[in-house]
Input
Amino acid sequence: MRIAIASGKGGTGKTTLSVNLALKLAESKSTALIDLDVEEPNGSIFLKGKLINSLDAQRMVPVWEQKKCNLCGKCPAHCLYNAVIRLGDYILVMPELCHSCHACSELCPADALPMQASPLGTINHFQENKLDFLESRLNIGLEMASPLINQALAYTDKHFATHEYQILDSPPGTSCSMIAAVQTADYSILVTEPTPFGLYDLTLAVETLRHLSQPFGVVVNRWGIGNNEVIKYLEKENIPLIAKIDHQREIASFYSQGKILYRDFPTVNTALEAIISHLEALK
Amino acid sequence: MKIAFTSTGDGWDAKVDPRFGRTDYFLIYDDATEAFTLVDNTEIRSVEHGAGPKSAEKIFELAPDVLITGNGPGGNAASILTKMKMKIYVGAGGMSIREAYNAFKNNELQKGV
Output
């Protein structure tokens, strides 16, 4: 069963929940944790496993060969992302905008835009006790998160297919990278906080998952701050409230030291138990 | 000399659009003939990605001597515009075309890119 841990708002506790949930699940079930927050993969702060596989991820981008080009104009006309621009007798390729669709390269009658591999990031597979932990990390300065997420998911399909649980720590927000992560999941858990900001971004994430026809429930983290509006919203929208985790200063202190929470904080452990029985009931 | 403004419309009283990539119009003023030429760029509204490079492609074809805009082109557009001889001035967003032209003439606009 593949579970995406997602949120509209950043900083609500996706990684905290993902890491603790995965470790607790791994006590009794085969489990993999996949950190897909490729721009800021933080899972490895909490998990110190043994590195068992490391891959360099690449993506394909076109490179213009001026000598072959006959300036027919097909490439800029067909690039949906305006990553290929014609300036007089010069073709400019902007790799930051390229989505590696190969259209310009395939349509070029002069073979002047061959695709070349370009570094994208790294995918590292760690094992900590019984937990498989996959970290995908985008190279600094790059913007194309989705291709790397898709490669990490392909690795997951290949190596963790028989695991009872695959936990996806998804990127924040509701843009392409979040969708790339959650759309492959069987179920999503949205983590939010009971504040106006948390509620606003939660509604965006709810709309996104409904648009994708994805089943989901909500975990409210830092319960005790803010107000009651998130709970009212969940009741009104008939969205399952799976668990609440109390706001405690000591939790933040543990977190800031990279420590695991559920063995020391009953509110976290109780929430994890509620989440696991919720997930088991979905089977 | 041909001076291009990112613009919300035609003539001296139109406003400088602070955006480069998503400007609705390029307004070209030729100070030799004292005539305006309005170039429609509203098709950019339907462009989801790469509006900056697309507008840069257009300004490349128009080939003015000077571009006056607001916030200045972003990174992708800037990488194209630096390949041109055109001089770029920024910080004119919200000014009328007349105010921006006078500010340019008085060397009050900041150089961009």
